[in-house]
Specification:
With 119 residues, this protein is mainly β. It has no helices and eleven strands. Strands 2, 4, 5, 6, 9, 10 and 11 form a seven-stranded mixed β-sheet that branches. A hairpin with a 6-residue loop joins strand 4 and strand 5. The radius of gyration is 14 Å and the shape is globular.
């Protein structure tokens, strides 16, 4: 099972920046897709950004142009650079790893990191 450890959340003023990190317990090359999701109180968990083993990225419309997902394969870590933060970006951010093992697909989740944006 892939274990994920997130870090980098915190409190920031609107317009500020934060960088989230997610370290995986296995080689990134074993993980098909790494993603960041977020969940605000009373709302569902939604995809923010994802990146494949080949480096293909995907973003939610609400963060395009402001957030950047990247990966460092040498460190088995994926990052989410968040710029121009807005109060509506406040949520718990979760790292996700989608991988295949013995012919089955699995999802692993991190414990979540809180992002708070003050207006």
């Amino acid at each position: 099972q892939v274990q994920l450890m997130e870090s980098g959340g915190g409190l920031v003023q609107a317009g500020g920046s934060l960088r989230l990190s997610c370290a995986a317990s296995v080689s990134m090359f074993r993980i098909s897709v790494m993603g960041w999701y977020r969940q605000a109180p009373g709302k569902q968990r939604d995809l923010v950004a994802s990146i494949t083993t080949g480096g293909k990225t995907n973003y939610a419309d609400s963060v395009k142009g402001r957030f950047t997902i990247s990966r460092d394969n040498a460190k088995d870590t994926v990052y989410l650079q968040m710029n121009s933060l807005k109060p509506e970006d406040a949520a718990v951010y979760y790292c996700n790893a989608r991988y295949a093992q013995f012919g089955f697909n699995y999802d692993s989740w991190g414990q979540g990191t809180q992002v708070t944006v003050s207006s």
